[in-house]
Write a structure and sequence with these properties.
alpha/beta, 384 residues, Rossmann fold, globular, binds beta-D-galactopyranose
Amino acid sequence: MKKFLALILALVMVMGLVACGSNEAPATEAPKADAPAADAPVADAPEAPAEEQVGEGKVVGIAMPTQSSERWINDGANMKSQLEALGYEVILQYAEDDVQQQVSQIENFVAQQVDCLVIAAVDSGALTSVEAQAKAAGIPIIAYDRLLMDTDAVSYYASFDNEGVGRAIGEYIETAKDLANTTETYTIEFFMGSPDDNNAVLLHKGVMSVLQKYLDNGTLVCKTGRTSFEDTCILRWSQETAQQWCENYLAAYYADEDLDIACTAFDGFAYGCRSALESAGYVVGENWPLITGQDAELMATKNIISGHQTMSIYKDTRLLAEKCVTMVNAVLTGSEPEINDTTTYDNNVMVVPSYLCTPVAVDVSNYEEIIIGGGYYTAEQLAG
Ligand code: GAL
């Protein structure tokens, strides 16, 4: 009887997983994750069938945070196609920024006994117990882009140099406004990432490592006074919140003087600031501020071309997916993946061996070379 009940339970769990899988990509809201939209970065041609289909018979569960931002759709699709080319079966799920939904999705992966988990967390602190379950079940975990905090269950971490992203944003502003030599002062406001995302903390650190001295000597003036991470972080990287904050700042602090710089940590925030600035009557080419972003999404790149955003940080999601796939292979075949950082990413329990890709600042002067030349988007996609 016990065995029968266990069988029924297992069946129910697997059915739950299939049911969750069905919301993988609501057709009305976003392109299907495994069928990149016409505006997705140009995917690398799937590798020729590997001589050895190392993944044959093995299942990889991928838990992604949201489809509300283009980049995660591309990350998921890139990983799926690269893993499938190696013979793996892939189950790709999105949690739509709902912490509990992501916990259940991973619980279901564990119940289904997938062979490996790849997780880009919504709120990494909320996953410690389900990660412990995975570890107990012998399922290795790779942290994707966002570090998994407070757990010893993670094998490797594939990401970008996140403090380097912040430094690149800070240095871009420093050079564009010649902060080291100018006698002008510039107004600036900050829109930083989610407090439950380690990347956001590091990015702010990187930005301030460059800009703090100019806030201190008065070259940069932040009229709201909000410069600390605590005061500028935006939960779940919400574009709507960024827009709301920008509207409030412009109304309350910038009635008599223009905002010169919107230092934002994410293309979604740059879109929100754009809307707020347009509503407040700012005009490109006249008093439009310098706006930074991150991810070089298609829309952001188009906004860079039209002058509505000044720069973004290009993070090649194809490369990140590739690094992650080598980590999946390594844990499942007992080999060593390529690692280039063994000191930076301390998750409070362990230092997670990492591969950090290099972020690159893009603006109107180099997008053709970097974005089009790198085959990320075609000129047609950017013109459309
Ligand atoms: C971060 C990531 C950024 C951006 C952001 C919002 O974790 O490092 O590149 O994508 O999430 O999605």
